[in-house]
From TrEMBL:
It comes from the Bacteria. One of its GO terms (molecular function) is kinase activity. This is Lipopolysaccharide kinase. It comes from Chryseobacterium angstadtii. The lineage of its organism: Bacteria, Pseudomonadati, Bacteroidota, Flavobacteriia, Flavobacteriales. Pfam families: Kdo (PF06293). Keywords: Kinase, Transferase.
Length: 253
């Protein structure tokens, strides 16, 4: 076993390892739990978020032990990196890895459970319920632009991976699901637009994003919108192809 804890939480090692040992029977499930399993669990009046990553095949188990950092370790390190650059993410508490002679068996990322928050997906799906949804979309666009300017590509840039919490009369955006990021010395504009591919197909939202990104970057709104729409359409085509392949794979078993 390998584990690293944030300094101010090192005295909770025993409690956290005990929960991981009994993870199947502990905590409250968040989401469907079909791939990775995410739960919130209370420890000594603290609300913590535990993410158990899906077990890998035998090849990737070996890779993640000897050649690549585990998803849990990357999540922990990227969280600290984001915070050091004045971005927000739930406070990283620890990561824990288990290995056998072949490779990685299980890994967990533990962070603060952000209470009284909602997702950007909630805003996108329920625009009529949010009077200030346009301002929220503008705030999201500013965040992504600032990440891009720092050379940070948040690969899982989908609305479910942004938590919002109103603090001091403004919305603060917290990034979650951090294990996939790229870091660029020079983040080319074409690749920046590709980063929006997983976000949404809603034309009203895309128009606001393209206008705001245009104002921030100095690139024409028409070009921003055209490139972002192209990226989302390519992603949608990939999804459809993947569904068809899964369909045939199921019946060809």
């Amino acid at each position: 076993m390998n584990h690293i804890f944030a300094t101010d939480y090192s005295h909770h090692i025993g409690d956290i390892l005990h929960i991981i040992k009994n993870f199947k029977n502990e905590g409250t499930l968040i989401g469907p739990g079909t791939r990775n399993i995410v739960k919130w669990i209370s420890i000594n009046n603290m609300m913590l978020n535990f993410k158990s990553f899906k077990q890998h095949n035998i090849i990737n188990r070996h890779v993640y032990k000897y050649y690549r950092k585990s998803k849990a370790k990357r999540s922990f390190e990227y969280a600290h990196l984001l915070i050091s650059k004045n971005f927000y993410t739930p406070k990283p508490i620890a990561y824990v890895e288990f290995h056998d002679c072949i490779g990685l068996t299980n890994s967990y990322y533990i962070s603060e459970q952000l209470e009284n928050s909602f997702t950007l997906q909630d805003v996108f799906l329920g625009k009529n319920s949010f009077e200030d949804w346009k301002e929220i979309v503008k705030g999201y666009t500013l965040l992504i632009y600032q990440l891009h300017e720092q050379g940070i590509e948040f690969i899982d840039n989908s609305p479910g991976n942004f938590l919002l919490k109103k603090m001091d009369n403004e919305y603060r955006f917290f990034l979650v699901d951090l294990n996939r990021m790229n870091f660029h010395h020079q983040f080319e504009i074409y690749d920046r637009f590709k980063n929006f591919a997983r976000l949404t197909n809603d034309p009203d939202i895309l128009k606001i994003i393209s206008l705001e990104y245009s104002l921030l970057s100095g690139i024409s709104q028409e070009h921003c919108l055209e490139q972002i729409v192209k990226a989302t359409k390519r992603q949608e085509t990939k999804r459809k192809i993947k569904k068809v392949l899964k369909f045939y794979k199921y019946f060809l078993k």
